[in-house]
Amino acid sequence: MKKLIHLLLVLTLFQFTCSTEKTNNQQAAIDTRVNALIKQMTLDEKIGQLIQKNGAAGMDSLVRAGALSSVLNEIDVLAQNQLQRVAMEESRLGIPLIFARDVIHGFNTVLPIPLGQAATWNPDLVKEGAAMSATEARSSGIRWTFSPMIDVTRDPRWGRIAEGYGEDPVLTSAMGVATIKGYQGEELSGKNSMLACAKHFAAYGAAEAGRDYHTVAVPENELRDVYLPPFKAAVEAEAGTFMAAFNEINGIPATGNKFLLSKVLRDEWNFKGFVVSDWESVRQLVVHGYAHDNKDAAYKSFTAGCDMEMASTCYETYLKEMVNSGVVGEELINEAVRDILTIKFKMGLFENPYTNPDDYPAVLNDEHKQLSRNIARESLVLLKNESAVLPLKKDNIRKVAVIGPLADAPHDQLGTWIFDGNKANSTTPLQAIQDYCGKDKVIYAPGMDISRTMNRTGFAKAIDAAKQSDVVLLFIGEESILSGESHCRADISLPGLQEELITEIAKTGKPIVAVVMAGRPLTFEESAKELDAILYAWHPGTMAGPAVADVLFGQESPSGKLPVTFPRTVGQIPIYYAQKNSGKPASDETWERMYEIPPEAFQLSVGNTNHYIDYGFKPWFPFGYGLSYTSFEYSNQKVEKAVYNLGDTIKFSVTVVNTGKTDAKEVVQLYVRDLVGSRTRPVKQLEDFKKVFIAAGDSAEVDFSVPTNSLGFHDQEMNYVTESGDFLAGIGSNSDLELNIQFTIK
Ligand code: NOJ
Question: Looking at ligand 1, which atom is closest to the CA of residue 245?
């Protein structure tokens, strides 16, 4: 046995050495080609490699002159191939273009919005979705996507919360890495590989008051502990490109931020890809008041480390002049060109510059749709299920009322950023429910045509439909246009007259199951009291209907968990689970409820803690929350040893029993608290999670291995340290859990 193990070890080591050698050889070969090419390039041609423009039309002469590196938003394969031919055959050095596009959550087959994907807590599935998106996009010649967006955010007012993975750095990192690996595959030169872009670097999700593009002020330690970890993980996952963000951070716009783009990204993390600006974000340095004019903007962003300019024209207009006058060293230009060409070689663009759609499977094929359905299914979060109204038993249903503006909204179910999605391919919940139950059982009366409407004329029919039915399926929420870039909301309650619709339907006394489609958490705690069940569906994509119906009718138990805290009211924002304790932490005992105390008795008291007198201190639903059709019992939470040394790996374990009657998946979550630090630490921090399938009556032993190194933070000097001391951990089904496992790091 020992010999066998030894042999296996030797073999593994051999394979590792061989593959490292192969990578080194490949890299050396690419370096040689890049250097040879750079030697032949004129300054104009070098600067051309730093330019990205929109659309292929009218670009021939630029490409012929070697003055363009990348084109975004051209999806006509003929036009791409034609322009690529100019690059390959008519430009002096034959350097291929990269065609880029925002492929954000699926291509023609639309997947749930990224926030919904995060709610699956299933990185493997998310990776499959990204790989599928890459294959579809490649069939349209797209070889570079501006995704994933790994901006941690604690503000649901921010419209772009829909595009990211929520409030937590660990969950965001896991989803970001899965997405990058899904897009890029094993090798960038793969037939189905699409270059990823980690964006928006950095802290874009911390925009003041949740207003897009707005000022960001975060202390460096928080930047490094909360906002940067997903980006560091992206570098480790070998994301080929980064996008500089629109926002400023502590006074310096990200696109001209040397600290971020050079010190952190290149020097500390050793990033080897290239950085692209956001749309005109180089020019915007002037608008920010950080550059005097476009020339100054070109200087500041290029020397900060932004390699490629998207859309605005500062680099092409001014870089040459600045090199010639000695303001910018040509070696700096060479470095940027080197990084861009290296990626182009790695992508195999020189060998395979053209696209033949016939080389790819049809888009929107059954397999792709099934995958989209599976991801959507796992993204659904069951927030409420009074008297186990769900799952519905279709044989017991005589009539079902389908009501609400999002029941049959093929476009809105796709969510934000769906350039290449088409509502004609959507299956809506209405269609899927009709399929499940038979058309004659379904009474459809939307009540409202869109979520924002202030028109009640549809109410009467909807109420009538409810009266005739055994159960109401109410599809409410936000249309897709109410979230996404620059679509922020100061009031995140249900828009239009939807709350009134709920009240009117509730008067019928029929059980109401609400399915909420939205690009963010919405606040409707009061109206929710009138609902028997709430299934939070985000914007689920092409297959929203079948996925929702699968869960409503119990084909699969819901297993999604919230990737973001749901506030009770907008005034609580920012509210997130990984908060600090403060010197006066709130508790149920100290919270003075202004509405429950007679006015004359309500006065300043000694119970001063960090709560709101009207809304307390707890969220509506905590991060990580989500119900199931079964029940899970957690027991035997433990740590293997009481004391660890720095550098050790800590082992945790738990027994989870499915005590109900339904097979289901559960997301087992591990949280840790560092009790005392040289800087205060959050009251809990997600360290790891595992999604496990447990059949009814079965149990699972789930364990976690956590290196002490990952329990660290940035100290006063900005060193990443894990400090020795006492820690608490907790393992459970959401972030609102007790930390009762003790251990010490020596
Ligand atoms: C602006 C957005 O901020 C960014 O995410 C996107 O990739 C670019 N536009 C290109 O469309």
Answer: 3
The structural domain count of the chain equals 2
Q: At residue 468, what are phi and psi to the nearest 5 degrees?
A: -80, -5
- 319-368 pLDDT, tens digit per residue, is 999 999 999 999 999 999 999 999 999 999 999 999 999 999 999 999 99
Q: State which of 279, 281, 310 you would mutate to test the pocket of ligand 1, scoring each by most atoms of that ligand within 8 A of its C-beta.
A: 279
Catalytic residue of the set 151, 278, 408, 420? 278
Are residues 542 and 643 located together in one domain of the fold? no
Question: Is pLDDT of 82 > 90?
Answer: yes
Residue 134 lies in a domain: no
Among residues 552, 576, 595, the one where a domain terminates is 552
Distance 243 CA to ligand 1 centre (A): 9
Top mutation candidate among 52, 149, 278 for ligand 1, by most atoms within 8 Å of CB:
278
- The single residue listed with the structure tokens 């510059």 is 353
Residues 548 and 655 in one domain: no
Asked whether residue 424 is domain-assigned, the answer is: yes
- Asked, for residue 718, whether it belongs to a domain, the answer is yes
| The ligand 1 atom nearest the CA atom of 199 | 5
Output the residue whose Cα is nearest ligand 1's atom 10.
279
Both tokens of residue 367?
A: 């397999």
Kindly state whether residues 545 and 637 are assigned to the same domain.
no
Q: Long-range contacts: 31-37, Cβ < 8 Å, 24+?
A: 31/342, 33/345, 33/350, 34/338, 34/341, 34/342, 34/345, 35/338, 37/93, 37/95, 37/341
The rounded Å distance from CA 485 to ligand 1 centre is: 8
Residues 531 and 652 in one domain: no
Residue 440's H or E segment, with its range, is none
Domain end residue (candidates: 552, 581, 614): 552
Which of 714, 712, 731, 734 shows the shortest CA–CA distance to 723?
A: 712
Of all residues in the chain, what percent carry a pLDDT higher than 70? 97
Local confidence band at 14 (pLDDT 50, 70, 90 cut-offs): low
pLDDT greater than 60 at residue 7: no
- Measured in Å, residue 279 CA sits from the centre of ligand 1 at 6
Q: What is the CATH number of the domain that holds 740?
A: 2.60.40.10
What distance in angstroms lies between residue 505's CA and the mean position of ligand 1's atoms? 41
Nearest-angstrom CA–CA distance, 38 and 51: 16
Task: Verify that 396 and 496 share a domain, yes or no.
Answer: yes
pLDDT digits (tens, 9 = 90+) for 185-209: 999 999 999 999 999 999 999 999 9
| Interval 432-461 mean pLDDT | 97
| Same domain as 501, residue 636 | no
How many A from CA of 336 to the centre of ligand 1?
A: 21
Same domain flag for 424 and 545: yes
Ligand 1 pocket, residues with Cβ under 6 angstroms: 102, 146, 199, 278-279, 485
- 287 phi, psi to nearest 5 deg: -65, -35
Please report the pLDDT score of residue 154 as a whole number: 98
> 134: CA distance to ligand 1 center in Å?
18
Domain presence at residue 93: no
Mutate to test the pocket of ligand 1, among 75, 101, 102, 212 (most ligand atoms within 8 A of CB): 102
* Token output for 237: 């996952």
Give the domain extent around 500.
369-552
**In this structure, which residue's CA is closest to atom 7 in ligand 1?**
146
What confidence score (pLDDT) does residue 21 get? 80
Contacts of residue 727, defined as CB under 8 A and 6 or more positions apart, other chains included, come to: 672, 673, 674, 675, 711, 742, 743, 744, 745
Q: 489 with 382, same domain?
A: yes
- How many residues are recorded in the chain? 746
Please say if 698 is a catalytic residue.
Answer: no
Supply the pTM of this predicted model: 0.97
- Write out the two tokens for 365: 């094929």
Q: Whose CA is nearest to atom 11 of ligand 1?
A: 102
Ligand 1 nearest atom to the CA of residue 73, by list position: 11
CB 541 within 8 A of CB 414: yes
